[in-house]
Amino acid sequence: MNMxxxxxxxxxxPSSNISFLRDVIIGLRADFKSLPSKYFxxxxxDLLFQQIMACRDYYxxxxxxxxxxxxxxxxxxxxxxxxxxxxxxxxxxxxxxxxIYLLKELLKRRLDFTxxxxxxxxxxxxxxEQSLPDQLTGLKLNAVHGEYxxxxxxxxxxxxxxxxxxxxxxxxxxxxxxxxxxxxxRLRNCLTAGDMVIVVxxxxxxxxxxxxxxxxxDGWTKKFNxxxxxxxxxxLGADFEVESFGHYCNYSPExxxxxxxxxxxxxxxxxxxxxxxxxxxxxxxxxxxSHKYTxxxxxxxxxxxxxxxxxxxxxxxxxxxxxxxxxx
Length: 328
Ligand code: AVI
Hints:
Helix content: 25-40%
Bound molecules: N,N-dimethyl-L-histidine
Largest sheet: 8 strands, mixed
Distance between the termini: 38 Å
Number of strands: 13
């Protein structure tokens, strides 16, 4: 992919959309076109993602929920080693649906902890501040609005208590493997020996099962993918004919990557902020990859980034795993 294509100055973009426009232009000027998956999540994208999570073919949500429903006791045991107060930090907390099971268990055991959910969405942080105190009496909550590492580094500078970091939702799977290694190194650098991370991975399994999760029979993932073009039309004043694009997804059992594409169904010319982009019939735009792992690969990742695998919790089908690593 040629990410160094020359970019002429875009016109008429509101300042808040400058980086969005820039990323779109870089992606669509590349030899193999791409769009960054982080832009899936506007209001409509959030709603579509909720539909994906509720649909039968997207097994990931149910697997993770099952682990938290059934294994929160086992996960909570890991925190008993700390006699005094500790911080429980969650990256990308969302609505904390699954974390609530663990928080309830920790509160039941009267462990002394502060829950610090970090999220880039101010809307989500406000929601947590409003809903959690009612649901979890006695919870010490310090919700942080901001980018993951900036917020994490700030939190770590202001407290010297032992800490555990949660990174749930198999979000780690949306990073390319090389970025995953950097991410784990960065996490390690925010921690001291004996601290803990709990990360959730989607495991390699029957390839058709995985592929279906990203091409569900109800068409929610297709709508979610196409919504990216609708968003570009809405926010960047583009003129994509959205119904002239299809959704294609391919899982490679060889490298564990499930990639999604938008496919042009005919020759088209699209204008975005005064720039013109040509799409040939059947040309693809790569929009997202979700990586799947084996337990061996996960343990290797821990070993190479300064962690020691301590425990793992799987769902009954062994499709999903929640790993606890200790900082060495
Ligand atoms: C957020 N992330 C873990 C989802 C996944 O499974 O990769 C995003 C998603 N994309 C399509 N369906 C779900």
